[in-house]
Amino acid sequence: MPTDDTLPAAASPQAAPQAAWTTRHLIALLVANVALALGAWLVRLSDTGPVAAGFWRLTLALPVLIALAWREPAAQRQIGRGAAILMLGAGVVFALDLASWHVGILQTKLGNASLFGNSGSLLIMAWGMITARRAPRLLELAAVAAALIGAGLLMGGSLEISHANLVGDLFCLAAGGFYAFYIIMLNAARERLGQFSVLAVSTTASVPVMLGIALLLGERIMPHDWTPLIALAISSQLVGQGLLIYSLRHFPQLMIGLALLTQPALSAAVGWLAFHETLSAMDVVGMVLLAAALALAKAGDRPATKA
For residues 209 and 95, is the Cβ–Cβ distance under 8 A? Predict the structure, then answer.
């Protein structure tokens, strides 16, 4: 295993992922966001503390991630010292993201939690434009505008700023910032390493941090019902994070950020169906605009013709 002290060349802050993506890659990215959007619902169903639920999400998934990582080609498992430090740091940041978000989930609406929890997508989109080192195309600007208007409509339709949920909103907003840094950090490592190798290393760093936070908060750690936690590990960590990290190699940062903005729409729908939370006509319009944003981004980008 190499022991270089520097990051791979592809991990340079100036490097941006190549837009070598097809419809198959787009479907993977959207499925990732569907799976991740279900996470808030499953956290509410668990009978542990919210941070403890995140700990089990990671712990139950980790053996599977390690096994899948060992099945990747040897070249995709050659982790240099710099890349290892980057991934371990990303794992700590992801633990802070999960802890903040899971605490916030129980103190606000699902639509609020997902909207604020994915607010970091704006930072990701901005970072993508900076690293592209070119002026944004007209359709890309239209995609960002449609996404922001759609998110704003979702906020107006489902967001309730009040004393009852202000604390939860702030926790979720902090989670959004942590998540943006997590994605940006792992994007560099994903340029040359396999998706499961990246996830296995970062998740290994996340697990003890999550357990430590849960114990400091005095949360209940052991569940009576494992079903929501197993579903959370499979849907959010294995499917959701697995496909998201897979997508990092194929999409520019702008596209990743736009896709993350679909999660508030999905979570608002889950909140409406499962917890009878309000879903207005403006929410539906917001969801349509978010879908239109992805279509505009697809038209504005120049995907490669190969799979």
Answer: yes
